[in-house]
Write a structure and sequence with these properties.
globular, 18 helices, 23% strand, disordered C terminus, four-stranded antiparallel β-sheet, 29 strands, six-stranded antiparallel beta barrel
């Protein structure tokens, strides 16, 4: 008979841990939190030191009954929720509802779900850490005060259904500020001159660098003409050759933020999907003979620290697989990424470095394999030797004009043999730029001189990866908050996603405008970051959580009173379209939903007809030859393309059809996006071609 009850959050985690602990332990899942603040009221006694009024979460009655029944059958209860503030709070709530003695060592934590880690954790249980609990309570109450005090005001003054949140409002403000930057941006003209040069049988390119020994900006056509006149008829001669050795170091292992960013770049995962799949890998996967094993360490962390045992295992694998040259003399150590990093857990890494992705590929789902491979490769690369690159810089003179060619070659790949970090432009690998052997005095053959006009570009809109990176850099939110924040601002209709980039909606602009006027501190990046710091101090035990809330609420309450009196009621009028409702004859109006605008009948609620906004992309349907291909959205918001004669014609494509037919067979070509740019791929034959995305035109001078 079992003599101990272990409570974790999820059935998957319970299954994994149950196999490790054996028959003396009953392992049950609480299915997350069992108590929370009520949804129907604010649930916080502000005048009584912000005392929270917790209630059992609806639907958790049967779970609690099962846990209480199991509690009666055992001598000891262990609470093994996740090793963070949220997990500590879950343990504390369970202790209350199960009437456990909180002075006893009932809390068990582990950073990875492996047999050894779990067994070691049960040898050293501890008391519930009330500093962690209070930090979670303070955040929960703080967000409840902001949400439940400001939201009703917005409902009354602006529109029913609106909400305001402490972190989500700052995120929307950041997106809106970027949109305003883009709108205010004034492009500036600049030019480049590229020379196509040849020596022996080798060709390469060199860019204009200097005129009369000094840097010169090519800001107009007149500047370009001056340079072209100066080099007319001139010989291009190598003046100077500089060779250098450059080391390129690996990126540190993943934190929550960097994992979300890289999964977005390389796997096209949204932040919420990344965390969901990572949770599966952490909680355990059945590997057959090996049993159920947690494949990665805890995935909510801001630390880049690695356990010495994991480093040694990685070094053993690297030496055996790639050779001693690929293993640095001493294990690599990575410092905290930021001053506000809590460093409570290790970085995200595989629980066994020797468990390479290919060996378990048949067992994992496609998403699990891709994410595990990303985590494994990043970790292994982080423990490998630096890459050695040979760089070559060549100055070439043509009369008083200097052109420069720069090339690089990987002499020793080091960590790049396994993994290279991506960036927000989609590039992952530093391509070699070939330069032939050159020496001072070499005379070159001029094959082409190409002047090009360019215009500076506005700052880019935020992708999920860019926004997560920005929030982290500004100290807004913590690892566990990024994914839900991005989900919330889309659900509320404050931002829309177009081509994977965030754009503020009219509703988002309106809410931020009101917030800026009446609650500027909520949108103040520094204020929000400082609040995160205060919560960290509560967790460390150096700050009292009630004092933190009091300090915030004192000024917040005054702001509320002013807003209640002075915020004007705003009537949002729907934009009328040219479409007429086919059901009742009323005009259709534009409405904003989670996935952007759609059409709805102005006769609502008498008529509830809605339909998507159809965008014709100018391509004749390749199947029926009668209809036109239009852009549509799936129920999940994903863009696809289909015939406007549906359901008579069922043509559909996830890839955007091109207006250009295949030059080889005349069939439809579709756009495929890759790290190199946009490629047109024929749907009938093997023909493909790259699309010139750069709209700059070569000037004819």
């Amino acid at each position: 008979m079992a003599d101990s009850l272990v409570i974790v959050e999820s059935p998957a985690k319970a299954k994994t841990i149950g196999k490790y602990l054996g028959s003396k332990y009953i392992v049950k899942a609480s299915m997350g939190h069992v108590r929370d603040l009520p949804k129907s009221q604010i649930g916080v006694e502000v005048e009584n030191d912000f005392n929270p009024k917790y209630i059992t979460i609806r639907g958790k009655g049967s779970v609690l009954k099962e846990l209480k029944d199991a509690r009666k059958k055992v001598k000891k209860v262990y609470l093994a929720a996740d090793p963070d503030r949220e997990g500590e709070a879950i343990a504390w709530h369970l202790a209350h509802v199960l009437d456990l003695d909180q002075t006893e060592d009932c809390r068990v934590v582990f950073n990875e779900i492996t047999k050894q880690a779990v067994k070691d954790a049960f040898k050293t249980p501890r008391k519930i850490n009330m500093d962690l609990v209070n930090a979670q309570q303070a955040r929960r109450i703080l967000d409840r005060l902001v949400g439940y005090k400001i939201s009703p005001l917005l409902w009354k003054k602006v529109k029913k259904g609106l909400s305001a949140g402490r972190v989500q409002s700052v995120a929307v403000k950041i997106i809106l500020d970027r949109e305003n930057e883009i709108a205010a941006f004034e492009p500036e003209e600049y030019w480049s001159i590229t020379a196509g040069l040849k020596i022996a049988e080798s060709t390469f390119e060199a860019k204009f660098h200097q005129y009369q020994g000094e840097k010169k900006e090519l800001s107009s056509e007149a500047d370009v003409k001056q340079i072209l006149q100066a080099i007319e008829g001139a010989s291009f001669v190598v003046q100077n050759v500089k060779e250098k050795e450059r080391l390129r170091h690996p990126s540190p292992p993943f934190t929550t933020s960097s994992l979300q960013q890289e999964a977005a770049r390389k796997l096209n995962f949204r932040a919420a999907k990344t965390m969901s799949v990572a949770q599966q890998l952490y909680e355990g996967v059945d590997l057959g003979k090996e049993g159920t094993v947690g494949l990665i360490t805890y995935m909510r962390t801001d630390s880049t620290r690695i356990a010495a045992s994991a480093q040694e295992e990685a070094r053993e694998y690297i030496t055996g697989k790639y050779g001693a040259d690929y293993t640095p003399e001493t294990p690599r150590q990575y410092s905290k990424k930021a001053a506000n990093a809590q460093d409570a857990h290790e970085a995200i890494r595989p629980t066994a470095a020797l468990r390479d992705p290919e060996s378990i590929k048949p067992i994992l789902s496609r998403d699990q394999f891709r994410l595990y491979k990303l985590i494994w490769e990043r970790f292994m690369a982080s423990q490998m030797a630096s890459a050695i690159l040979d760089t070559l810089s060549v100055d070439i003179r043509a009369n008083e004009v200097t052109f420069r060619a720069v090339g690089s070659k990987v002499r020793f790949p080091g960590f790049m043999k396994v993994y290279v970090e991506g960036n927000d432009d989609g590039n992952a690998v530093e391509d070699d730029k070939f330069l032939p052997p050159l020496k001072s005095g070499d005379e070159l053959v001029t094959e082409s001189i190409e002047p090009k006009q360019h215009f500076t570009q506005p700052p880019p809109r935020y992708t999920e990866a860019r926004l997560v990176k920005t929030l982290e850099e500004l100290g807004i939110g913590r690892p566990s908050t990024y994914a839900p924040t991005l989900e919330t601002i889309q659900k509320r209709g404050y931002v829309a996603v177009e081509e994977k980039k965030f754009m503020p909606t009219e509703l988002g602009e309106l809410v931020i405008e009101q917030m800026e006027q009446f609650f500027p501190e909520i949108l103040n990046v520094e204020f929000t970051a400082n609040m995160e710091g205060d919560l960290d101090h509560v967790e460390e035990g150096s700050e009292d959580w009630v004092r933190v809330l009091n300090e915030f609420y004192e000024s917040f309450e005054k702001r509320l009173e002013v807003a209640e009196e002075e915020m004007k009621e705003i009537e949002i009028e729907d934009e009328v379209s040219d479409e007429i409702c086919e059901k009742c004859g009323n005009p259709m109006v534009y409405k904003l939903g989670r996935f952007g605008k759609f059409l709805a009948c102005s006769g609502f609620p008498d008529c509830r007809n809605t339909k998507p906004i159809i965008k014709d992309i100018g391509v004749t349907c390749p199947k029926c030859k009668e209809g036109h291909v239009v852009e549509r959205r799936s129920k999940k918001g994903r863009v696809f393309y289909g015939c406007n004669r549906y359901p008579e014609c069922d043509f559909v494509s996830w890839d955007k059809p091109s207006t250009k037919p295949c030059p080889s067979c005349g069939s439809l070509m579709v756009e495929k996006r890759s790290k190199q740019g946009i490629k047109l791929q024929c749907t009938s034959c093997d023909h493909s071609e790259m699309v010139e995305e750069d709209q700059e035109e070569t000037a004819e001078l």
